[in-house]
């Protein structure tokens, strides 16, 4: 099964993606995480992508599209859940074309709907676990608050060290990312609408303002 996950930064898309990929044994492919790995590893691609990511701009398509398509091909037999791509109408069209050419089929599109102001508030409070990016930790939500250990906040799931993402604490970068997401002319919402209008893939739209369990239940009940 191949799935696309859409939702603004801060909508809980990564958390829901982790739940779904575990249930169906899918590869979880996150374009942003692939970039961060490259940056950490000091690769050429990472060096090129870094400046865009720090500003909250999109990394150019000639870097991003081949990187993502190559990764999808690796998991052709396993099936994948793709998160963070496509982020624009042009990327949606490129993905659609590449899937047809490679004989891969898109089975579901998941859209987590969340108002822009709510998404922003959520981003600023989230904390990243050093052991697993998908361990949910957020200083403003009681259910997923980090825990205190030796006077320090640590991951509520595994006790791992917590950090913030630089682009999560930068309001200008957040606003830029949301400008791109909510743009229904050429941005990410245009990509969502592209798949909605195509009509040959089931689009599951859920209300992202609910808690993690409620959101995952409303997604899972639409999946086989
Ligand atoms: P994310 O972890 O999805 O928030 O992605 C972090 C950053 O990586 C984004 O702000 C972009 O700079 C870059 N990025 C991730 N996915 C894409 C994409 N599909 N196209 C261009 N840039 C991307």
From TrEMBL:
CDD domains reported in the protein's UniProt record: ADK
EC number(s) per entry: 2.7.4.3
SUPFAM superfamilies reported for this sequence: P-loop containing nucleoside triphosphate hydrolases
Broad class of enzyme this protein falls into: transferase
GO BP terms, alphabetized: AMP salvage
GO cellular component: cytoplasm
Reaction it catalyzes: AMP + ATP = 2 ADP
Location(s), subcellular: Cytoplasm
Origin superkingdom: Bacteria
Binding annotation for ATP: 10-15, 126, 210
InterPro entries for this protein: Adenyl_kin_sub, Adenylat/UMP-CMP_kin, Adenylat_kinase_CS, P-loop_NTPase
Record PANTHER family: NUCLEOTIDE KINASE
Similarity comment: Belongs to the adenylate kinase family.
Full protein name: Adenylate kinase
Organism: Desulfolithobacter dissulfuricans
Lineage per the UniProt record: Bacteria, Pseudomonadati, Thermodesulfobacteriota, Desulfobulbia, Desulfobulbales
Gene expressing this chain: adk
